[in-house]
Amino acid sequence: YHAKSRGDHALRWESSLDKHVASRMTLEQDLRQAIERQQLFLHYQPQLNAAGELLGVEALLRWQHPELGMISPAQFIPLAEETGLIFRLGRFVLEEACAQMVRWQESGLYMPRMAVNLSARQLTSGYEHEVISVLESQNLAPTRLEVEVTETLLIQDMEGGLSVLRALRELGVRVALDDFGQGYSSLSYLSSLPLDVLKVDRSFVMKMDALAEDASEQGRGGQVASEQGANEQAIQLVGAIISLGHSMGHEIVAEGVETQAQFEGLKRLRCDSYQGYLLARPMTATAIVERYGPGN
Ligand code: C2E
Ligand code: MG
Ligand code: MG
Ligand code: MG
């Protein structure tokens, strides 16, 4: 009896594992073909200054799967990294993003800057040459490109990645640290990184809410008071991050600005640049022209 039940269990487990593996392999095959079948494309999310002027956009990869619909990059980027497909995907993103800058220009929209996300695995030695060749083929100045990397990326493969970033910066490409605050870098490590921009992670911005309007309505429940305490703490923390970044000579971008209160709070803290659903969602290249192009 005992053995049989264990056998059944093992069988059930095995078959669900098979399914899991099979679907992963199918997804991997689908992803391999996705570029040729033109299922991959970019959305662009504006980055604005406090006055609402367009400073640039961040390219965000999208996959329209024929059966599964839109698949989030949070799901397929890790798969692409594990399978090595990230090299082809990354090349596609860089080429498409740079080509789009030229297309916008032709339709009368000057886009000051394009930010592109890079995965850890892409930053192998010599990667700067790929960037140079793409920029040259589009006749695009390096200063109009920004690459976004994460802290974890830099911790995993220190020297190789860092020397690529140094080479890119020497060319004039800007380097941004994405999702700042999510990682565990020490301050001395942070100050040693070759960076131009810190992007304050959305999780900090999220907590900066509801204080501005409600500050006058005191004396309500303890609940409100403690929420305001947490909010005040978040504002202080983001303020400290911004001062720290500025003291290192970096520009600060706030990610995930969703409410007017967050926007106002960040402006008071002298944040340089703002990105989030409140200001603009990621959108197609055409939507960018409709919103920011000539005649708008
Ligand atoms: P990320 O680089 O930190 O990009 C910001 C993410 O936050 C995007 O999600 C964006 O759509 C979303 N977002 C922007 N504003 C708001 C907001 O106000 N509220 C909320 N809740 N979310 C907001 P998305 O497009 O799903 O991308 C997720 C992640 O996938 C990116 O995070 C990035 O790490 C990765 N990714 C996207 N495209 C690429 C790519 O071309 N290459 C690589 N290596 N990674 C990419
Ligand atoms: Mg990013
Ligand atoms: Mg980010
Ligand atoms: Mg993020």
From TrEMBL:
The chain holds residues 590 to 885 of 885 of the full protein. It comes from Cobetia marina (Deleya marina). Keywords: Membrane, Transmembrane, Transmembrane helix. Signal peptide: none annotated. The keyword Transmembrane applies. This is EAL domain-containing protein. It comes from the Bacteria. Residues 24-296 form the EAL domain. The keyword Mitochondrion does not apply.
